[in-house]
Every structure is written in C-alpha cells, then in structure tokens.
Amino acid sequence: MTNQPENDEKLPPPSPEQQDSVLKKERVSRRMLLMKLGILLNGAVAILIATPIVRYLLGPVAGSDDYRRWIEIGNVDDFTDGETKLISYLNPFTDPWDGETRKIPAYVRRVSANDFTVFAVNCAHLDCPVRWFAESQLFMCPCHGGVYYANGERASGPPERGLFQYERKVENGKLFIKAGQMPTLSNRAQLIQEISPCSGPNSSITG
Fold it and tell me: Which pTM was predicted?
C-alpha cells in the first residue's frame, strides 16, 4: 500500500455562485459572437443592396465620358445611297456578361456621299420599336400605328414628332455616333428638326 503525499489535496468543487458566474460569462461571450456575426451578415447584405443603387445614382457623373464617346458603327462604304439599313452597336453602359442585351439597334440612312442620318428605333410616342418598310419607304410602329416618312418626319398616328436621331460624324471613311445616351427629348440625341446633316469629305459632326 502506497502512501499519498500530504500536500496532494483535492480542490473543493466550485460553489453555486461561481458556477453561475462562469455560465453567465459563457452566455455573454456566445451572445457577443452571434451579434458580431449578425452585424457582419447585415453589413454584407446592405452592401449588396446598396451597390446597384449607388451605381445608378452616380452613373451620370462617373460615366460622363461615355456620354461624349463616339461609337463606330461601320464603314461609309457599308451603306448605299438612298438605303435605310438596320444596324446594332454595343451600349457603352453595359457589362461584358450582359450578352445580347448589350446590342442596341438603330437605323442608318445614307442620303448622299457623306450625308447620313441615324435614327433610333424607338417610336416617339411610347418607345415601341418601329419597322422600316422599303417598299413604301415608311417607318411603322406596330404598337399604336405611328407612321414616319423615310427622313424620320411624322406621317400619321399618335406620335407628335418625328423619330429621334443620334449625333453622328464621318471621319476617315468611318461612320460614328454618340451612343452614350438613349434618345429622349431632354438629352442631346435631339429631334430631327434640330440636327443638321453631315457634310465635309473627311470629318463632319452634327448636333
């Protein structure tokens, strides 16, 4: 039989007050951890929600250069005199993952050598896309019966004005438009009555 050392004494069990204190500290620590996780998650969700809103609000400021950007839409030789042709260009405000929605249609009419008109496809009534009918030389809106002449002027129907036009220029045999903004009454893609035709052999700007 072995003798245990005299100083080997068992510690007394914690009192109920000590046990309650330890449990309270554990509960407080657990609660603080959960609270911090909740704050982090709420912050992440708030950032995800706020990001597109902030981008929308700051878009006109941050993208001001895009509004002044000239977009090449083709060679001058791609268009025939007197012909109205449907083309598409890439919207400078989209992202690469937007796919086919990045493409914006427009109508290009070549009046003469360096005289071009570029129409938006949007009807001036309620923005429905108009269609060009070469046989009748008319643009027609399938939504509410708006009709426009080949030069974009209103022919009949509910629209009160002609088709909108883009600012355009011919430079070094290329046709460019200012495509950073969609045509409305309040921006520089103005009405056809306010835009003079292209002119000049190498470089011409309208708008």
Answer: 0.57
Residue type, 30: R
Burial per residue of 178-194, b for 16 or more beta-carbon CB atoms within 10 angstroms, e otherwise: bbbbebeeeebbbbbee
Distances (CA, A) of 148 to 83, 140, 145: 16, 6, 10
Strand 138-140's sheet: what is its strand order? 131-133, 138-140, 147-149, 154-156
How far is 70 from 105, CA to CA, in rounded Å? 16
26-42: pLDDT as tens digits? 776 777 788 888 888 88
- Dump pLDDT digits (tens) for 159-190: 888 888 888 888 888 888 887 666 555 544 44
Q: How far apart are CA 139 and CA 159, in angstroms?
A: 12
DSSP secondary structure, the chain, as one string: -PPPPTT--PPPPPPHHHHHHHHHHHHHHHHHHHHHHHHHHHHHHHHHHHHHHHHHHHHHHHTHHHHT-EEEEEEGGGS-TT-EEEEEEE-TTS-GGGGGGGEEEEEEEEEETTEEEEEESB-TTT-PBPEEETTTTEEE-TTT--EEETTS-EEESS-SS--BB--EEEETTEEEEE-SS---TTSSS-BGGG-PPP-SSSEEE--
